[in-house]
Amino acid sequence: MNLYFMRHGIAVAADDPGLIHDSGRALTSKGVKRMRRGARGLHRLNIPFDGILTSPVLRARQSAEIVAASLGMEARLEEISGLAPESTVQHLLFGLTRYQDREHLLLVGHEPLLSRSIAFLLRGGAEKGCEIAVGKGSLCCIELNGISPPEPAILRWFLTPKQLRLLGKR
Tens of pLDDT along 49-80? Predict the structure, then answer.
């Protein structure tokens, strides 16, 4: 199974005076524009995604919708609570168990959950080991033999947002 971790695009600042709750933070116009370009780059990679899972939080949902539209996968977009910002690695992995039969699954979410999940899977569940940071709009691919990591996953590649956007320009 290949898991693809993508962080949401640039969103309104957390201290924006018109913001009532963090979950209501939307993508900025710059965030939308960059996600569209990145989604075009992702489309050019020709990955046969079996589904797109997103956090229920607005900025991640908007990012996932942009990607789903670019890939023609609007009907295969699902929200899961395991990708919410307050979630834990264990909650996310538990939520992913029902998708174990998928080969290519795109996850759209938040930091620090994405980097913690990637590091946990790369370490094979060990307490210490690698660290990773996922920037806004980045995409990371790891390969694993199952959701419960009896052995370490393999980092296949990591693309920065700029690299994805450049792919989309071609």
Answer: 999 999 999 999 999 999 999 999 999 999 99
Q: How would you class 116 by CB atoms within 10 Å of its CB: exposed for 0-12, middle for 13-18, buried for 19 or more?
A: middle
pLDDT value at position 1? Answer: 93
pLDDT at 19 over 70: no
Determine the pLDDT at residue 164: 93
C-alpha–C-alpha distance, residues 108 and 167, integer Å: 19
The pTM of the whole model exceeds 0.90: yes
- The DSSP line for the chain is -EEEEEE---B--TT-TT-S-GGGPPBPHHHHHHHHHHHHHHHHTT---SEEEE-SSHHHHHHHHHHHHHHT-GGGEEE-GGGSTT--HHHHHHHHGGGTT-SEEEEEE-TTHHHHHHHHHHTTT-SSS------TT-EEEEE-S-SS-SS--EEEEEE-HHHHHHHHH-
- Quick check: 43 and 70 in contact, CB under 8 A? yes
